[in-house]
Amino acid sequence: KLSKRLTQILGKIPPGSRLADIGSDHALLPVAAVESGAAIQAIAGEVNLGPYEAAVKQVMESGMKDVISVRRGDGLDVLSAGEADVITIAGMGGGLITSILDRGLDKLAGVRRLVLQPNVGEDILRKWLYSHHWVLVEEFILEEDGKIYEVLVAEPAEATELTNERVYTERTIGDRVRLSTNWLLRMGPWLTQSPNSVFYDKWRSELEKMAHILQSLSRSDLTTAADKASEIQSDIEFIQEVLACLP
Ligand code: SAM
Fold first, then answer.
1. Which PANTHER family match (predicted)?
2. CA–CA separation, 3 vs 144, rounded Å?
3. Domain-terminating residue out of 135, 162, 189
4. Model pTM greater than 0.90?
5. Are 207 and 98 members of one domain?
6. Structural domain total, the chain
7. Candidate of 48, 56, 71, 145 to mutate for ligand 1, largest count of ligand atoms within 8 Å of Cβ
8. Would 73 disulfide with which of 77, 127, 185, 190, CB 3.0-4.6 Å?
């Protein structure tokens, strides 16, 4: 059975897509996508030998080797331009996903949708999408087995009515807290609009981590420690205000 996380990603692949799943590991997502009709054909890309072999085995066993091509290589290197219209990259850090997209820019021409699931560093990824004219059209946050995951769905600016300027327009919540574009990039423009309980759990846990950092900074002799501490302190206060104002 597909995990809740992969099921959420699968649900964002439009029916009949030509899918490329990068960092596919056991190729669970491409197999499920073809099975459900979300994909009519798929490419499973893997850089590491073990996961690549696991993907080959999974695809053979599923009887889908004619429609799912398993390829070994780094990031989008496994694709030819125009081969896929949806790309999924899941289960890695936002920094790694960003560098995969960045190194494969030429392969993104013709791609209609990116479905990305960073384990950490969502803000880095949102910033990359923003500055490369990919509009964040939806985002989700969910919890599974005690871990919290975010799923970001982006489309090329020319293919959607939405614009990043609109998505990330500063807005006031409650009647006094101003969410700047930078904070929207950090917390998520859609997640802050309709936060669920997982969103609150994530930010409460972020607040705890920040409090720990403050404690260790208070014991530090570094000359920059005080500046860093006051920056974190003001972030903590801001996040607390945001959480208090959201519905
Ligand atoms: N995408 C699957 C999922 O979400 O369940 C597997 C996630 S797994 C934690 C990350 C996979 O990405 C690993 O199998 C790893 O080998 C692969 N990977 C890491 N860097 C990669 C890269 N630059 N290109 C292709 N695959 C990569």
1. TRNA (ADENINE(22)-N(1))-METHYLTRANSFERASE
2. 8
3. 162
4. yes
5. no
6. 2
7. 48
8. 77
Q: Are residues 67 and 177 in the same domain?
A: no
Residue finishing a domain among 127, 162, 197: 162
* Beta pairing partners, 150: 141
Contacts for 219 with CB less than 8 Å, ≥ 6 apart: none
Please state the atom number of ligand 1 nearest to the C-alpha of residue 24.
1
> At what angle are helices 49-62 and 28-36 packed, to 10 degrees?
30
Residue 132 shares a structural domain with residue 39: yes
- B/e letters for 154-164, b = 16+ CB within 10 Å, e = fewer, are bbbeeebeeeb
Indicate if ligand 1 lies below 6 Å from the C-beta of 23: yes
| Alpha-carbon distances, residue 30 vs 2, 69, 95, 246 (angstroms) | 11, 10, 23, 37
Among all chains, which residue has been given the structure tokens 């020319």? Answer: 158
Range of the domain at 14: 4-162
Q: Among 138, 128, 140, 73, which residue's Cα sits nearest to residue 102?
A: 128
Q: Choose among 109, 101, 95: nearest CA to 22.
A: 101
| Ligand 1 centroid from CA 229, angstroms | 35
User: pLDDT tens digits, residue range 212-232?
Assistant: 999 999 888 888 888 999 999
For residue 45 and ligand 1, the question of a CB distance below 6 A is answered with: yes
Q: Is the CB of 150 under 6 A from ligand 1?
A: no
pLDDT band at 247, cuts 50/70/90?
confident
Task: Encode pLDDT of 91-101 as tens digits.
Answer: 999 999 999 99
CATH number at residue 62: 3.40.50.150
Predicted-complex ipTM score: 0.99
